[in-house]
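Quick start: load a record and inspect it. Here is Glucose-6-phosphate 1-dehydrogenase:
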Amino acid sequence: HVESTLSITVVGASGDLAKKKIFPALFALYYEDCLPKNFVVFGYARSKMTSEELRNMISKTLTCRIDKSANCKDKMDQFLKRCFYHSGQYDSEEHFSELDCKLKEKEVGKLSNRLFYLSIPPNIFVDVVRCASLRASSANGWTRVIVEKPFGRDSESSGELTRCLKQYLAEEQIFRIDHYLGKELVENLSVLRFSNLVFEPLWCRNYIRNVQLIFSEDFGTEGRGGYFNNYGIIRDIMQNHLLQILALFAMETPVSLDAEDIRNEKVKVLRSMRPLQLEDVVVGQYKGHSKGGKSYPAYIDDPTVPQDSLTPTFAAAALFINNARWDGVPFLMKAGKALHTKRAEIRVQFRHVPGNLYKRNFGTDLDKATNELVLRVQPDEAIYLKINNKVPGLGMRLDRSDLNLLYRARYTREIPDAYERLLLDAIEGERRLFIRSDELVAAWDLFTPLLNELEERKIAPELYPYGSRGPVGAHYLAAKHNVRWGDLS
Ligand code: BG6
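Running the structure step on this input writes:
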């Protein structure tokens, strides 16, 4: 039995994502004894810093979320001792070979596995994988590379990025992260459906009227305008996070829970969908607004955003899957920044009960009597099912009540951050929650014609006030498909 070392190199160590998510997730894994006995963490970035300074920097964002005892503080110190820093350019073979020497010093005499997290803009991914020779970085173990979106801006640029990466990496080495797949409730989607008899038989066009995937944030693009303006909400949230959830939701039963079986089914869903057209979407952009003596900026007030920007900060879309299970069922997506609330949820609206005996108790609005299953991904994770119920009493009055599984009431355990699960999966070589290249191609093929058209025809987004419920156009879009947004009713 050969002892192994795991080294985790965070490239772009001084960036926001690294500080806020990656280092804290690594610490949480360490705290939970999920990391191997021999491991080291390296930060790599251009800024000049000592290892001590890196430790100082990351210690500020590590949290003892699991327990707040002194034990956690000790663990934190032990973790920080395993963290090192190397400063270098992203396109310098020399600097990466210095890093390689440092890694080797820690790896002596052992099987060495290396994980690189490229927490840097995608336009420098290729420089890094080339200069760091990541294809065969570790002589006697595996080398895996985690990359995070944006993977291009459209089919063409994404294809180009994939081709370039594959010059220097094998597909099995590439772990394309979509952090929404690491969220507890998203993982639970398959459990709910495939292990409960009361759901799977209903999971089709015969019983489901529409599915809604909703993402909203109650803050704008503050500080990220430079990045955001080049992408917009469709590329930032819909083409990846919401579409991935949709694929998981709608896939056929996979042969097994193996990564390839699941991803085979997901890609089939994506390829069964009709590419979006202009009439399938509504786009919006937030404008400034004053409320309670406080004023909120417009998107274009961001100094890094051009005054005439048409970039959508909100979009609603109707998608359809052309297969036997889902033919005609609208999958509605809605994503926006600077809305009235922060929330992500999946809502499944069921059909009316045929010949409902209690029809008259609902007046003319039968929609009020349909069952709705809601998975609240965040915040305050919950799964609830809206059912009709008799209000206790002598009369026959009905109301809609919830069968409610509220996580914080049911489970005492903290819900891990998505990055914890995904990092652990990458370390264990579990690819189920990572995006395969054919999924990425299919996802871009769905959205690229629309994105081109929006840009070529300079479609002006509908303005909505910061902190509002978004453009009215979203209601018309839903109404066109006989749908009402569940989060607003
Ligand atoms: C990122 C987007 O992928 O997801 C951000 O680029 C967005 O714009 C973020 O704010 C939302 O993630 P979470 O986990 O905070 O819901």
